[in-house]
Structure formats: structure tokens, C-alpha cells
């Protein structure tokens, strides 16, 4: 059943997924995660671009705690199923989308919100955006968030954010490699639309080739990446004839 806190809008080849729970900072719960996963895993071949947006002043202030009460004494399997599996499934689903995924970030992006911004292929941030991984304030190792960022953000950036728990401004996040571009808050929507127009000007097969390379090539040896690049380019070009 779709979550009422996730609004999905299809506009031709563009799919917008909006976190729509502004009264609590768009905290992600299990139903919201499931709605996002269902959307991005059932895209048809005409989709060229997915955007993750938010309503209200903040992108996402984290995750609604799924922890059982302390007196419940849950088993490790229960904790894995209820606590750890849902966010990992969400991150994996976004990584696996066949076309580019863009996050449009304003306000606070904390914990899971920071991971959502980082796991997308492009993160466009307003100049008032703030990023933080703060789980260790509760003595919780944020390895789930870290799993979304490793390979996409420099290891030293992840280590600093996790261990220091310091907030990064949008400019600091840009310099640290967490976001792709910072724009004035007043023009964030216009900049996001302009970026979408640029991407949508390309064919779906070209965008899928770029996404495949970005997703798989970093794990390949140099020779393998070169061969993969040639294969993807030839496949995309052949679609024109």
C-alpha cells in the first residue's frame, strides 16, 4: 500500500518522488521506504530521470525509530529484519535505478537524509542546506548510513562526519564531495528544473549507459573499465541506426 507521505508524480520521462511529511522534518518510516522502493523498481523503459524532492523547509531529518521497546528483548534476527534491512534495501534500490537519480536538498539532511542525498548520482543543494550524521550521539554506529556513502564520498569525509558528528554546511559538503552543486535557496527549484531539462534532452539509452558506467566501473580494474566503456558506447550508438 503506497504511503501517504510519499508523493509520486510522473511527467513524461521524469519521475518525481517527494517526501511529504513536513510536520516532522520528513522523517522516513518503513512505509515511506517501501513506497520509494516500489516506485524505483517498477520504472518502465521510457523513464529517463528520477528526482528525490521534499516538501517543507527540510529535506529529511532522519528516520523514525523502528527500535522495539527496551523491555521487548528482541532477537538479533528481529533487529536485522526491522531495523537494519529496510534502509539497506532503500539504498540498494536507489543505487540500482537504471537511469540517473537526482536529489534536491534544502534545509536539514540528517542521518538517513544525508545518506539519501549521497546515494543519488547527483545531489543539488541549496546554500542553506545542512548535512550531519549524528547517530553516535546515541552510541549507535551509523554503519547503515555509511554503507550508502562509501564508494561515493571520500572515506575521510565519512569518517569525519561520523566520528565528529559535526554539521556540514552546503559549501563544506560540496568541498567534501557529498553534494554536486550548491545554488541559492531562492533558485533551487529553477536550478533543479534546468538540470532536469538538460538530462531529459538525452535519449534513455544514453542515460542508462552513463548510469551503468558510474555504478559498475569504479569496482573494475582499469582494463575492464575500458572494455566496458567501449561496449556501452557502441551499444548506445547502435540504437541510433
Automatic annotation (TrEMBL):
Alphabetical list of CDD domains matching this protein: crotonase-like
MF-aspect GO terms: catalytic activity
Species, as recorded: Paraburkholderia silvatlantica
Top-level taxonomy: Bacteria, Pseudomonadati, Pseudomonadota, Betaproteobacteria, Burkholderiales
PANTHER family: ENOYL-COA HYDRATASE (PTHR42964), POLYKETIDE BIOSYNTHESIS ENOYL-COA HYDRATASE PKSH-RELATED (PTHR42964:SF1)
Family: Belongs to the enoyl-CoA hydratase/isomerase family.
One of the Pfam families matching this protein, by short name: ECH_1
Name of the molecule in the record: Enoyl-CoA hydratase/carnithine racemase
Amino acid at each position: 500500500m503506497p504511503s501517504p507521505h510519499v508523493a509520486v508524480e510522473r511527467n513524461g520521462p521524469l519521475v518525481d518522488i517527494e517526501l511529504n511529511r513536513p510536520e516532522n522534518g520528513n522523517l522516513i518510516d518503513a512505509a515511506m521506504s517501501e513506497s520509494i522502493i516500489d516506485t524505483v523498481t517498477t520504472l518502465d523503459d521510457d523513464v529517463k530521470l528520477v528526482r528525490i524532492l521534499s516538501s517543507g523547509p527540510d529535506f529529511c531529518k532522519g528516520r523514525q525509530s523502528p527500535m522495539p521497546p527496551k523491555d521487548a528483548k528482541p532477537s538479533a534476527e528481529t533487529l536485522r529484519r526491522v531495523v537494519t534491512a529496510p534502509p539497506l534495501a532503500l539504498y540498494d534500490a536507489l543505487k540500482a535505478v537504471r537511469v540517473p537519480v537526482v536529489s534536491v536538498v534544502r534545509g536539514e539532511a540528517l542521518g538517513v537524509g544525508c545518506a539519501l542525498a549521497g546515494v543519488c548520482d547527483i545531489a543539488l543543494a541549496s546554500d542553506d542546506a545542512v548535512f550531519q550524521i549524528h547517530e553516535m550521539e546515541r552510541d549507535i554506529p551509523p554503519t547503515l548510513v555509511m554503507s550508502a556513502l562509501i564508494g561515493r564520498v571520500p572515506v575521510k569525509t565519512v569518517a569525519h562526519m561520523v566520528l565528529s558528528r559535526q554539521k556540514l554546511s552546503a559549501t563544506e559538503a560540496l568541498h567534501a564531495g557529498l553534494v554536486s552543486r550548491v545554488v541559492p535557496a531562492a533558485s533551487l527549484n529553477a536550478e533543479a528544473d534546468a538540470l532536469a531539462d538538460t538530462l531529459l534532452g538525452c535519449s534513455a539509452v544514453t542515460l542508462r549507459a552513463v548510469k551503468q558506467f558510474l555504478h559498475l566501473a569504479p569496482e573494475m580494474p582499469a582494463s575492464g573499465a575500458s572494455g566496458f566503456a567501449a561496449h556501452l558506447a557502441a551499444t548506445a550508438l547502435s540504437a541510433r541506426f
